[in-house]
Design goal:
heterodimer, A: alpha+beta, Rieske Iron-sulfur Protein, 2 domains, four-stranded antiparallel sheet, three-stranded antiparallel sheet, B: Cytochrome Bc1 Complex, Chain C, two-stranded antiparallel sheet, binds FE2/S2 (inorganic) cluster, metal ion binding (chain A), iron (chain A), Rieske_2Fe-2S (chain A)
């Protein structure tokens, strides 16, 4: 009984010749392909988000008449169509901006509510003279610059978004001025405002 | 053992070698006898097994997509029998694992149990610890509630700041450029598949190596050697039972694992915090301004983890071991300190008075506390709605919230109305009951009683609390109340000396005889009832009571339509100024037809200066939607409808309850 066992585990050496080399190569290749193919298919799908690009929609946010030139920030939702994988949400709130129009200015400035530090939602209480981020206590002046400069956790001021005024005339002969902004998403955590790709 | 059983076991053993396996597993020598201090590793294994069990069953009821994740967790928690227990166990066992892990790790380092030949096993242990943290991070997002969503969003944004590959890592983690379906599918795959698989793959060699090297006994040995089975195993099992008891107690004591409102990318959650055992990291980041962030988020934590991996080699000398122990103490101490600091920062306002010096700290803390309470209030409401017979629509629970006047009304009112109007519980209505805020919101949503106060410091328009209800109508017929600040007596009101006021005051003139006064009072009482019933803000009234009121209202309607002239000395009545159904003309005062009904109020807000309402007498109120073309309007009909429904107390009530005020 014991002898039989030893015999079985005895290592047989392979005599090297061309035929065995090809045999081994074929074994490795065939096995490798059998495993790698599903793996590659999976990895490609897994990596597919890298190909996705961010779009920066132009959005109508308000009527100019809603933003008096008193230098006070007013918060407006960004409403745009939003596609999430297989679902399309029409007219979805996708973010928020603060519009501030200073005395005598024709055009408001637009500040995105996304904190340049790590993306929390910057808050503003009417009457306050600062924007405040609830997460790591960054504070910004009403023009978006950092209250304490480089001592602030946020690496840069609040991001400004391009504003465009458009007048519209309705069928009933009224005219109104609309405020449009380009809703750009910026990377957090850098000194410069870099668009997310 | 019966001979049948024995032969069965023999058969099995012959084919699998199960006896020697079992023997191997159970008859391990424990040098110096079984001790309580050896239980920590085993409790971790058992805790992990418990997580696998509860996790698997949770998985069977969970659905990862943005429209179903919160919804399915809600269903587990509130509708499935025992679901709250299952989820509570999983939730708190995760907390327990972190604590056990800390104990196990501290003990190993303290005892120097990483020394040769156990280096490799220590390294595996540190890797296991990281896997457990990964499980915790990924699990936090899965309910897709505000808390998890915002915490994860901060976490992944931080990851995107990693040098070079950061943005790509973030995209891969969240499965796209935005958080969405694929964030959930990926996190679930990590949480329920990849990470547990990795954990098992590491745990098997961890335990195997532990067995190979034997238990690292701590000197001095307390007694003679013992066997793992049953001595140590008994202690291990008892300890595991203790852990389970603690977890159960937490589950039951806390009521349930928290589920905040469904994640909404457009609604900030100002109370976003990571799970308590990551609070120290969160606090640590506050120390690194601007671009120094990389140090706080990557360099230092990376260096610490590297040091942990190197501990067995550092600890080869006596000095090295002391260094390791020192590092351990500093780390644990630092973590405790930072955690305490984070909690103190957040709850500052509950423990300290506000002073000049601490105002920033105080306000930040107050904002956090308010946000937390607001979030609880929202969660409670949306859960109540989801439990109502209407259930959750296919578009998900977020729709429930967006279309709910109870939740949206205060926000819209604050944004568009509170500049001029206040919404204050009128002094005469102050309830005798002291509400604690939680009770307060519950009462409000259950009874359709609008108790939310939005106070404008210097109102320049009427107080809109209880608009259109019985008291509102009565106040406008009362010579005293009509001129108070809640009605026509607000600051700079042109109506304070207007015709309505003098009409009402004259009608109640002093020279009336007892009998005449009675008739006048009665007439106005009937008119208010008529207006009130037509406005339809009577949901709190018992149907029987309503039937009785209907009689009085019929009389009131006749009075409005001209009958009042016969009661009053002046011979005037409502329709001299107002239009009421077919009587009277538009142009000098608002239409009384359906006064303060839903339709009336919506039209009023659209354009108060139209002929149907105040016309040229309109006092400063903007027209929010005067145009047919919606692009020209400030507010859309949906928003106006939500404001009106909220003011009128018209919202879905979660349960049928007896009305509290039924007069
Ligand atoms: S996210 Fe705003 S301060 Fe950190």
């Amino acid at each position: 009984m014991k002898e039989a066992k030893t015999a079985r585990t005895e290592i047989k050496t392979v005599s090297w010749n061309r035929r065995t080399f090809f045999e081994m190569l074929a074994a490795v290749v065939a096995g490798g392909v059998a495993i790698a193919t599903p793996l590659v298919a999976g990895v490609v799908t897994f990596l597919s988000p890298l190909l996705k690009k961010n779009t920066s929609p132009k959005v109508r946010v308000a009527l100019l008449s809603q933003i008096p030139d008193d230098g006070m920030p007013r918060s407006f939702p960004i409403v745009a169509d939003h596609v999430d994988a297989w679902t399309k949400y029409p007219e979805q709130r996708i973010g928020s901006v603060y519009l501030v129009r200073n005395k005598g200015e024709a055009e408001p400035i637009a500040l995105t509510a996304k904190c340049p530090h790590a993306g929390c939602f910057i808050g503003y209480k009417p009457g306050d003279d600062l924007f405040r981020c609830p997460c790591h206590t960054s504070a910004f002046k009403l023009d978006g610059s950092r209250e304490r400069g480089d001592a602030e956790v946020a690496p840069r001021g609040m991001d400004r978004l391009p504003v465009e005024l458009r007048s519209v005339a309705s069928a009933d002969d009224n005219e109104a001025v609309e405020v449009w902004i380009e809703f750009i998403d910026f990377q957090t955590g850098h000194k410069e405002a870099i668009r997310t790709a | 053992m019966s001979s049948h059983l024995r032969s069965l076991v023999d058969w099995l053993d012959d084919r699998t070698g199960v006896r020697s396996l079992l023997h191997e597993a159970l008859y391990e020598r424990v040098p110096g006898g079984a001790r309580w201090r050896y239980v920590w590793g085993s409790t971790l294994v058992i805790a992990f097994v418990a997580q696998m069990i509860t996790g698997t069953f949770l998985w069977m009821a969970y659905s990862p997509s943005t429209q179903t994740a919160w919804e399915s967790v809600f269903y587990i928690q509130y509708e499935m029998p025992g679901g709250w227990l299952l989820r509570g166990l999983h939730h708190y066992m995760a907390h327990a694992m972190v604590v056990l892990l800390a104990i196990h790790f501290a003990q190993v380092v303290w005892d120097g149990a990483y020394r040769a030949p156990r280096e490799l096993n220590f390294v595996i242990g540190v890797a296991l610890m990281l896997v457990v943290f990964g499980l915790s991070l990924t699990g936090y997002l899965l309910p897709w509630d505000q808390k998890g969503y915002w915490a994860t969003s901060v976490g992944t944004n931080l990851a995107s700041q990693a040098p070079i590959v950061g943005p790509e890592v973030k995209k891969l983690a969240i499965g796209g450029v935005d958080y969405g379906h694929h964030t959930l599918t990926r996190f679930l795959a990590l949480h329920a598949g990849v990470l547990p698989g990795l954990l098992i793959a590491l745990l098997v060699p961890h335990i195997a190596l532990f067995r190979r090297h034997g238990l690292h006994a701590t000197e001095p040995l307390k007694g003679p050697d013992a066997m793992f089975w049953p001595d140590q195993l008994l202690k291990d099992s008892v300890a595991a039972l203790g852990v389970l008891a603690a977890v159960l107690a937490l589950t039951i004591y806390s009521g349930e694992a928290e589920l905040t409102a469904p994640a909404d990318p457009a609604t900030p959650y100002n109370a976003a915090r990571p799970e308590w055992y990551f609070l120290f990291l969160f606090q640590f980041l506050k120390w690194f301004p601007g671009e120094l962030e990389v140090w706080g988020a990557f360099v230092i934590p990376g260096a610490v983890v590297t040091l942990l991996f190197l501990m067995p080699w550092i600890g080869r000398s006596r000095g090295g071991h002391l260094f390791n122990v020192g590092l351990l103490v500093v780390l644990l101490g630092g973590i405790i300190l930072l955690t305490a600091q984070a909690i103190r920062d957040d709850y500052f306002a509950t423990w300290y008075e506000r002073t000049e010096a601490n105002s920033d700290k105080y306000d930040a803390s107050q904002a956090f506390l308010d946000a937390k309470q607001e979030a609880e209030h929202e969660a409670e409401r949306v859960i109540a709605l989801a439990q109502s017979p209407e259930k959750i629509p296919p578009t998900g629970a977020l729709t429930l919230m967006a279309e709910d006047p109870f939740l949206q009304g205060p926000k819209l009112f604050t944004q568009h109305c509170a500049g001029c109007h206040t919404h204050e519980v009128d002094g005469r209505h102050k309830f005798d009951i002291e509400f604690d805020p939680k009770e307060f919101s519950r009462t409000a949503q259950n009874f359709g009683l609008n108790l939310v106060e939005i106070i404008s410091p210097k109102p320049t328009a009427p107080n809109l609390w209880g608009v259109g209800d019985k008291l509102w109508m009565q106040s406008f017929m009362s010579p005293q109340l009509i001129t108070d600040r809640n009605h026509f007596g607000y600051e700079n009101s042109p109506f304070a000396q207007g015709e309505m006021v003098s009409f009402i005051q004259e009608a109640h003139g002093e020279e009336l005889s007892e009998e005449e006064r009675k008739a006048v009072d009665e007439a106005f009482a009937s008119i208010s009832i008529a207006l009130w019933l037509d406005a339809g803000t009577t949901r709190l009234v018992h149907p029987d009571g309503l039937k009785e009121l209907e009689e009085q209202a019929t009389r009131g309607r006749e009075l409005i339509a001209g009958g009042l002239a016969e009661v009053l000395e002046s011979g005037m009545s409502c329709i001299d100024c107002h239009k009421y159904h077919d009587e009277g003309e538009l142009g000098s005062a608002p239409d009384l037809t359906g006064y303060m009904s839903r339709e009336w109020m919506i039209e009023f807000i659209r354009n108060p200066a139209s002929e149907r309402f105040y016309g040229e007498y309109n006092d400063r109120m903007p027209a929010f939607a005067p145009h047919d073309d919606p692009r020209m309007n400030q507010l859309d009909d949906k928003a106006i409808g939500l404001i009106v429904d909220w003011l009128r107390g018209d919202w879905v009530m979660p349960e049928t309850v007896e009305a509290p005020l039924s007069d």
